[in-house]
Amino acid sequence: MISRSRGAMLDVRRQSLGGKMLWKIIGVVAVVWIALAVIGALIEGLFPILVISAVVFGLYLLYKAISGSDDHNTVTKV
Prior knowledge:
The chain has 78 residues and is mainly α. Helix content is 85%, strand content 0%. It has one helix spanning 2-67. It is rod-shaped and about 95 Å long. It starts with a helix and ends in an 11-residue tail after the last helix. Keywords: Membrane, Transmembrane, Transmembrane helix. The chain crosses the membrane at residues 21-39, 45-63.
């Protein structure tokens, strides 16, 4: 009888550990999912700003190249 109750106790501990491990896995998956959602939203929001700034910078460089100013300062020359 002692071995039976002891075996039952071990089964209960295994089940509770398995349940805790399941919740850890679910928690990790939830955290990764939320992190990816936040990163995706940031990229989606900042991408148009990045494109617009690249176009404006390109237009600025084009203007500087076409204007042909006599200023030979190495800081402003690209």
